[in-house]
Design goal:
It is built from eight helices and nine strands. It is an alpha/beta fold. A hairpin with a 7-residue loop joins strand 4 and strand 5. The protein is elongated.
Length: 265
């Protein structure tokens, strides 16, 4: 996207009554970067495939992700904050790195249906509730990471009700507790109702085909039925927009993080 087109996009956001943002898989931090952490690699080798220690890995991911974040993610989110300042917006994000929650963006206007590292749940989801992260478990894994505690001194946190292991509330657990996001999803759908026949600018950043029914397909449908909506689809490889809404959309073949880095207000 040229600089002139970028300014046009920013102007469209400013003039919109509502702004809907979708952050997809390619907007997430590259988790393979975790292997660049020497201590993380050591622990992976020590744990190996031992099932009794599988629960430790997500704790380590949470710790390391907070340390390895690159400046470009910080710049991208800061520019998103500026772009949405003063706007009536909502953000749907597939990212599970929780970086979005470290910003100044309004948490009540964010929904992350894939979960993340902020709360825990029973692996069996026996009670359909979420719980805070046990501080003693987090501290113990942190001490193990620092080499201050032996591996066999760690104890898996368990559900008080059924005794199953506690897991971070994110896709991938045995029975994912959707209760972690459903209330916010309800706010999102109610917000969407208010955008009908209003000027709506839709920014879809890095959304691929991993979970197309969450953002990609619904966003297309929103733009199709709202004649006052306009879609910007930014993706490095899946940037195409269907013919039905091509007159009210702009496809951008670009890395979504780099795209937002250029959105300096």
């Amino acid at each position: 996207m040229s600089d002139d087109e970028l300014r046009k996009m920013q102007e469209r956001v400013r003039e919109a009554d509502f702004v809907l943002v979708g952050l997809g898989e390619s907007f997430s931090y590259d988790w393979s970067a975790l292997t660049e952490d020497a201590r993380y690699r050591e622990i992976e080798a020590e744990i190996g495939g031992a099932r009794e220690y599988i629960w430790i890995t997500p704790f380590l991911q949470k710790m390391v992700l907070r340390r390895v974040r690159e400046d470009r993610w910080t710049r991208a989110y800061r520019n998103l904050e500026s772009l949405l300042a003063g706007k009536n917006y909502f953000i749907v994000s597939l990212c599970m790195d929780d970086y979005l929650y470290d910003t100044a963006l309004d948490e009540d206007r964010i929904v992350t249906p894939c979960g993340g590292f902020r709360r825990m749940q029973c692996d069996r989801n026996c009670s359909h509730t979420l719980t805070d992260i046990p501080e003693e478990s987090y501290e113990a894994v942190l001490r193990y990471y620092r080499g201050e505690l032996a591996l066999d001194m760690l104890h898996e946190p368990v559900c008080e009700k059924c005794g199953a292991g506690l897991r971070f509330n994110q896709l991938g657990v045995t029975r994912y507790a959707e209760e972690g996001y459903l209330e916010r999803w309800g706010k999102y759908t109610k917000w969407l109702q208010g955008t009908v026949n209003r000027r709506l600018c839709v920014l879809e950043l890095g959304v691929g085909m991993e979970y197309p029914t969450v953002i990609r397909f619904p966003f297309e449908k929103i733009v199709l039925y709202n004649q006052k909506a306009f879609l910007y689809r930014v993706h490095a490889s899946l940037w195409q927009i269907g013919g039905e809404i091509s007159d009210r959309g702009r496809s951008v073949r670009e890395d979504p993080i780099g795209f937002l880095e250029r959105c300096v207000i």
